[in-house]
Every structure is written in structure tokens, then in C-alpha cells.
């Protein structure tokens, strides 16, 4: 199987990229498509568990590429049991994807797809630790949520739900249900992202004065819609209506509470189509009872479904709907296709849109960095194999030498691949861009990065990469630099990642197959001797190069081999009298 970028060396790895704005949770630039490059699957069809109702178009798309198990209303135990047989899981807001789910998957779960926006029901930290990509469908239900917000706003202002219930109960109560007008009133939109800005646009159409608070929103977007960006304080204290459109995070949890209600205009009306947890529900009840809040319209609740006899749901001044914001035919079909494409793309190693727990590398950068990504991993892999067993790797320094300005070179991918190369050979942990930093930290490996700015043409993104490991002993003493660190350096030559320095010795060997490094007393005929030993054993030599300090002194010979030589062959090489030390390294 090949990826559109043909990153064959990454097939066994899983590599995820997305924009910084998608990290950690909310996104700001939702008009631009984010791109992620993800895994390549193994043989056979992957299995996808769809744990909540998904639009048929999405199911049909999934079925073309995977075995699809649609099992709804699973208990936590049932989900944990099933998950060990699944490569991907698709949920909406009703399924908690906690740490137990990732633990139970025993490494098989590669992607969690959230068919919607809010990922507060997915334990992102656990997903990241387990190297599982989380993707969502951030755009297809925006309009539906905004329309529901407006529906609740207008229904609340005119007591539509209460009046409807009363007329159905045989009453005709015209004076009881006198409402309030929207025109000319101030609406504060908290959270000016996708949904918030669509709500603002529609509210402007209703003749409302719209203000918004969002520390991350671009002022020009607000200006374009005729909305004023204000502080939180101004928003809550001057609004007649407040509409919530924030993600639920540690910072937004219970953002509306006794203290903030006390600073609001008496008689304020509140709409929540975001997440129940953004409001302290007990405090809202108190504010409703005391008259600070005249009415509330709630689509979302801290606990869903809310407990029977929930006082907010039953409150006369509350209009409630059961988390219907995204529930239009159109939005559900759109979300289903959006998430199915993201999950299938992720499983197939194609470029796909949207990821929430990985940093973004745009596709054009990826394309350019492709050979350097391979180089970075191989240098990490080589360097760690030069460490004497038991030394314990804790301090790694990666140097990128480039003529580009540091702002023009995104090294996150390279750093992740160095970590992958370093750690995978010495552990059973599966590493990708999602969990590389986490795994390094867990293992106590401190990675520092250094940029060396070179003069010259910035045509190539990187001149060379050096990986150094400090505080260790080496099984190949010649790999040590002057300062006693293991040091390997590589370059991309005509598109091919190559090893160009080991310790103080310059070499030149393409990083394919495996490498034998020998230190010898520099003398004629050495290449022939080693070459013929390998030839006798049918080991194909792809490259040989000798780097010496000075003629007649010590030299390091680097030999690229396609297959792993037998122990006897390696011993024969070691027995050559001029060879002082040698090491076999698998790439
Ligand atoms: N009821 C429903 O069925 C639906 C609910 N939603 C929810 O609506 C909310 C908004 O969704 P989108 O607009 O798609 O997300 P978004 O990510 O586009 O927008 C969220 C905005 O909140 C802002 N924000 C974050 N922290 C903030 C803070 N402390 N103060 C002020 N602003 C802050 C962000 O900068 C961002 O602009 C989410 O909670 C989402 O889960 C979305 C769709 C359907
Ligand atoms: O997309 C969101 O954030 C939503 O709240 C929609 O949730 P749902 O997919 O309808 O369970």
C-alpha cells in the first residue's frame, strides 16, 4: 500500500499532523482545511466500531473500506471488550471514551473519530499516551448548531415551548405568555468560533446589537459581521441575552457561576447550545429563582441525559431540548461523511483532514521534509544502537543545520522521528507524532534541539542533521565526539538519506538496509578484504566508504549491507588484524 506522498519508510509508523490551532481543543481558523498524514494499515480490512447512530452516507463510505460494526448503547464493559478487536472507533457526544477504552484496546485502536465538534467526551491525554489519533468533524454541524441556538433564542423570548405545552393541556393563556422582543437588544456571544460567528450573523439579521468575547478570535472576522469584540466583563454585564459557544475546557468549566451571574444585568436571558458544564447548573437555578436570570434555553447538560426530575429541565422559565444542536438531517449526513473520510483516510495512511491531538505540518512542508523525516528516524536509530547496553539514554541533542531562517523550518516532525528512531529499538512502545514527546518524557529522555543557521542558498530545507547522545558509553568508541558524546550526522543526497559523519570520522553511506562500521588502521586493501568476506557469504554490499583522520592513521569504514550478515561473517571481519573495533547496526 502506498500513501499519496509515498512515504514508504513510514508505513510501519503512524504519523499524524494537523494545525497548531487544532491543538489542544478548539480551532480558530476553521475555513482552512487542515491536513493530517496518518498511518498505513497492515494487510486485510480494518475493523471500525460505530458506537452511536451515524448518517447512512457515512456508514456506506466506511463499509467500502472496512468491516463496520454498528453497535449502539454499549455499556462501558461491552465497549472495552469490543475495542480490542477494533482499529477505529466512531462516536458522537453520548459515548465516554475514557482511559479504560484505550487500555482495553491493547494498542490496536489507532483512530477515534468524533462525529461532531466537542471532544470533551474523549480522554485526549490517554489517547495521546496510547498513540491513538483523535479526529473530529468540525464543520458539518456548524449551521445546524447555530440554527438551533437561534431557534432557542426566539422560542425562549416568546415562550413558545411553554405556550405550546399549555395549549395542549387545554388552556388559552394569552397574557401569561407575553414575550420580549429581540430587535435592538444586546446579545453577547461567548465564543466566537464557527457556531458563535454563525449565531452572531443571524442575530444581526434579527436586528440585535451583537457583542462577543473570545480571546482568540480575529478582530477582522468580528468586524466583517458587524460584531464588537469586548472583554468578558463587558460581555456579561451589558448583555440582555447571552449565548454560549465555547468548548468545555478547564478554563471554561462553570464559567457562568454565582459570581458571574451576580455581575449580569437583572433579567438577562441565557442560551446554551455548547456544553452543559460551561454553566454551574446549581448557580443557574439560584439565578433563575432570584430573578437575575429571567429565562434560560438549554440544549446541553452537565450530565446527559439529565436525571429524572432535574430542576432546571422542569423549571417554568427554562426551555430545554435533548442535545439537538447537531440533529438535522443535513448536518448528520454531512458529519457522517466528514468523519468517515477522516477515519478511513487515517487508517489508510492518506492525507486526511482534522486531528485534535497532534501538531500540524502542512502538506507542502511534509512533501519537502519527506527524505529528512526518514533521515531523522535513521539517525536516531543508529545513534541509540551505538550506546553500550545499560548506559541509559537521557540527554539527546538534535542539531538542524540550515540556511533557512528558523521561522521557515518546522522541525516538530523531525524531532518526533528522531525520538521514534531512538526509542523504538529499545522498547516495545509504538511511537508516532501523537505520542513521541510523551513517550520520551515518560522514559526520562530529554530532547534538546539546536538550530545552526548557515550562509548559502535556502533552497534545501536542511543541510545536515546531527544527533548526539550525552552521558553514555559507546560500543563503538570511534562514534564519540571530542566532547565524549555519541555523534552521528546525516544529509540528504539527491533525495537519499545518507550517513555522513560518525564521531569525528567523515563517511558516506546511504541509509538503507543495515550498516557495518569498522575502525581500522588506514591501509590499502581493507575494502577488498571486508568486501570479499561479505561476498563469500552472499551478503550484498550496497555502499562502502572510508573516512580517515589522516592518511596512514585510523579510518572508519562504513559498509551498507542489504541483509544481516551471520555471526560467523561478522566474526571474520572482526578477526582482520587491522580492524580495531566494529559494530553492526540495523536501520
Ligand atoms: N449542541 C450541539 O449539538 C452542538 C454543540 N456544539 C458545541 O458548540 C461549541 C462551539 O463549537 P464550534 O463553534 O464548532 O467550536 P470552535 O472551536 O469553532 O469555537 C469555539 C470558540 O470558543 C473560543 N474560546 C475558547 N475558550 C474561550 C474562552 N475561555 N473564552 C471565550 N472564548 C473561548 C475559541 O477561541 C473558539 O473561537 C462547542 O462546545 C461544541 O461542542 C457544536 C455543535 C453542535
Ligand atoms: O458536535 C458537537 O459538539 C455536538 O455537541 C453534537 O453532538 P452529537 O453528535 O449530536 O452527539
Automatic annotation (TrEMBL):
The keyword Amino-acid biosynthesis applies. Pathway: Amino-acid biosynthesis; L-serine biosynthesis; L-serine from 3-phospho-D-glycerate: step 1/3. It is an enzyme of class 1 (oxidoreductase). Residues 515-587 form the ACT domain. GO terms for cellular component: chloroplast. It comes from the Eukaryota. Keywords: Amino-acid biosynthesis, Chloroplast, NAD, Oxidoreductase, Plastid, Serine biosynthesis, Transit peptide. GO terms for biological process: L-serine biosynthetic process. Gene3D superfamilies: 3.30.70.260, D-3-phosphoglycerate dehydrogenase, domain 3 (3.30.1330.90), NAD(P)-binding Rossmann-like Domain (3.40.50.720). The keyword NAD applies. Its EC number is 1.1.1.95. Its main location: plastid. One of its GO terms (molecular function) is NAD binding. It catalyses: (2R)-3-phosphoglycerate + NAD(+) = 3-phosphooxypyruvate + NADH + H(+). It is found in: Plastid, Chloroplast. PROSITE patterns: ACT (PS51671), D_2_HYDROXYACID_DH_1 (PS00065), D_2_HYDROXYACID_DH_2 (PS00670), D_2_HYDROXYACID_DH_3 (PS00671). Belongs to the D-isomer specific 2-hydroxyacid dehydrogenase family. NCBIfam families: PGDH (TIGR01327). This is D-3-phosphoglycerate dehydrogenase. It comes from Brassica campestris.
Amino acid at each position: 500500500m502506498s500513501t499519496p506522498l509515498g512515504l514508504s519508510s513510514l508505513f510501519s509508523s503512524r504519523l499524524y499532523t494537523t494545525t497548531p490551532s487544532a491543538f489542544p481543543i478548539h480551532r480558530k481558523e476553521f475555513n482552512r482545511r487542515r491536513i493530517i498524514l496518518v498511518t498505513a494499515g497492515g494487510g486485510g480490512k480494518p475493523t471500525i466500531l460505530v458506537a452511536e447512530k451515524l448518517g447512512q452516507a457515512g456508514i456506506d463510505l466506511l463499509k467500502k473500506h472496512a468491516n463496520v460494526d454498528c453497535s449502539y448503547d454499549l455499556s462501558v464493559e461491552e465497549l472495552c471488550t469490543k475495542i480490542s478487536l477494533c482499529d477505529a472507533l466512531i462516536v458522537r457526544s453520548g459515548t465516554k471514551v475514557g482511559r479504560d477504552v484505550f487500555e482495553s484496546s491493547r494498542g490496536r485502536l489507532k483512530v477515534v473519530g468524533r462525529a461532531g465538534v466537542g471532544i470533551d467526551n474523549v480522554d485526549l491525554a490517554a489517547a495521546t499516551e496510547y498513540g491513538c489519533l483523535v479526529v473530529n468533524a468540525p464543520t458539518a454541524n456548524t449551521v445546524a448548531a447555530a440554527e438551533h441556538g437561534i431557534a432557542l433564542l426566539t422560542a425562549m423570548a416568546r415562550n413558545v415551548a411553554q405556550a405550546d405545552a399549555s395549549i395542549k393541556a387545554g388552556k388559552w393563556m394569552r397574557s401569561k405568555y407575553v414575550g420580549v422582543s429581540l430587535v435592538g437588544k444586546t446579545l453577547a456571544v461567548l465564543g466566537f468560533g464557527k457556531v458563535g460567528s454563525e449565531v452572531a450573523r443571524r442575530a444581526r439579521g434579527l436586528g440585535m446589537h451583537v457583542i462577543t468575547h473570545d480571546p482568540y478570535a480575529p478582530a477582522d472576522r468580528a468586524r466583517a459581521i458587524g460584531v464588537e469584540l469586548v472583554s468578558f466583563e463587558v460581555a456579561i454585564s451589558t448583555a440582555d441575552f447571552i449565548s454560549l459557544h465555547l468548548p468545555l475546557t478547564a478554563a471554561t468549566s462553570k464559567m457562568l457561576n454565582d459570581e458571574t451571574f451576580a455581575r449580569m444585568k437583572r433579567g438577562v436571558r441565557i442560551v446554551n447550545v455548547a456544553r452543559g458544564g460551561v454553566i454551574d447548573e446549581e448557580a443557574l437555578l439560584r439565578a433563575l429563582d432570584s430573578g437575575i436570570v429571567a429565562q434560560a434555553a438549554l440544549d446541553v447538560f452537565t450530565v446527559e441525559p439529565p436525571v429524572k426530575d432535574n430542576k432546571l429541565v422542569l423549571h417554568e422559565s427554562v426551555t430545554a431540548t435533548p442535545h439537538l444542536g447537531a440533529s438535522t438531517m443535513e448536518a448528520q449526513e454531512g458529519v457522517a461523511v466528514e468523519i468517515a473520510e477522516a477515519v478511513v483516510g487515517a487508517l489508510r495512511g492518506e492525507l486526511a483532514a482534522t486531528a485534535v491531538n497532534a501538531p500540524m505540518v502542512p502538506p507542502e512542508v511534509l512533501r519537502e521534509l519527506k527524505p529528512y523525516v526518514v533521515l531523522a528516524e535513521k539517525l536516531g536509530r543508529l545513534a541509540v544502537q551505538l550506546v553500550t547496553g545499560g548506559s541509559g539514554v537521557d540527554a539527546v541533542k538534535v542539531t538542524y543545520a540550515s540556511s533557512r531562517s528558523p521561522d521557515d523550518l518546522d522541525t516538530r516532525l523531525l524531532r518526533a522521528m528522531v525520538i521514534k528512531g531512538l526509542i523504538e529499538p529499545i522498547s516495545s512502545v509504538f511511537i508516532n507524532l501523537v505520542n513521541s514527546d510523551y513517550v520520551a518524557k515518560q522514559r526520562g529522555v530529554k530532547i534538546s534541539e539546536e538550530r545552526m543557521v548557515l550562509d548559502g542558498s535556502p533552497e534545501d530545507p536542511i543541510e545536515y542533521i546531527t544527533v548526539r547522545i550525552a552521558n553514555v558509553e559507546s560500543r563503538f568508541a570511534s562514534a564519540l565526539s571530542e566532547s565524549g558524546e555519541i555523534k552521528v550526522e546525516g544529509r540528504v543526497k539527491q533525495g537519499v538519506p545518507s550517513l555522513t559523519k560518525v564521531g569525528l570520522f567523515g563517511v558516506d553511506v546511504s541509509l538503507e538496509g543495515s550498516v557495518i562500521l569498522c575502525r581500522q588502521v588506514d591501509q590499502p586493501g581493507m575494502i577488498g578484504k571486508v568486501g570479499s568476506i561479505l561476498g563469500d557469504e552472499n551478503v550484498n554490499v550496497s555502499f562502502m566508504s572510508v573516512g580517515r583522520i589522516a592518511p596512514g592513521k585510523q579510518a572508519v569504514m562504513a559498509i551498507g549491507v542489504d541483509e544481516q550478515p551471520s555471526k560467523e561473517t561478522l566474526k571474520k571481519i572482526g578477526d582482520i588484524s587491522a580492524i580495531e573495533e566494529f559494530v553492526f547496526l540495523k536501520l
